[in-house]
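User: Let's play a game. I give you a shape written as tokens, and you guess the letters that built it. Ready? Here's round one.
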């Protein structure tokens, strides 16, 4: 799987309420959630996204409440993956379950700037910053997790396995 898009940069400790405010949790409709993605931090975030774009952030992305709505809002908004220095554990698991790739770059995530054009090769464990002409390596997902991501999430993966 290869992804390519412009980066949208955020700082440390972006919590799930920043990603999608609790007042919108009365639905699991990704399209509805996407309309409000990250509006707590940037009211115009959704208007700036082009399909395939990438979020880059600092430490502890996705901390706070355990809500699967947060990665669902990100994915439905058109973001193809999230790169951060670190992720909150439950956000990490919820993201993989819906097929949203997360890339952990403890040092190199700091080098990514707003608007950088990035190309991510999930299978090879590489992020190429085409703007800065740099390459960052990350720990590749184990094969079963790559299959879940490539299937679009755990539910689709299971459906394929039982057919």
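Assistant: Ready! My guess for every position:
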């Amino acid at each position: 799987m290869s992804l390519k898009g412009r980066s949208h940069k955020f700082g440390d400790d972006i919590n799930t309420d920043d990603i999608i405010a609790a007042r919108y949790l009365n639905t699991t409709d990704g399209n509805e959630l996407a309309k409000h993605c990250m509006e707590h931090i940037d009211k115009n975030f959704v208007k700036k996204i082009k399909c395939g774009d990438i979020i880059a952030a600092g430490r502890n992305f996705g901390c706070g409440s355990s809500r699967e709505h947060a990665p669902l809002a990100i994915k439905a908004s058109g973001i193809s993956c999230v790169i951060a220095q670190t992720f909150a554990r439950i956000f990490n698991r919820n993201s993989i379950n819906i097929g949203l790739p997360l890339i952990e770059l403890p040092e190199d995530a700091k080098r990514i700037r707003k608007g950088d054009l990035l190309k991510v090769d999930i299978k090879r464990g590489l992020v190429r910053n085409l703007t800065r002409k740099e390459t960052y390596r990350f720990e590749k997902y184990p094969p079963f997790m790559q299959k879940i991501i490539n299937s679009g999430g755990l539910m689709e993966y299971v459906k394929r396995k039982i057919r």
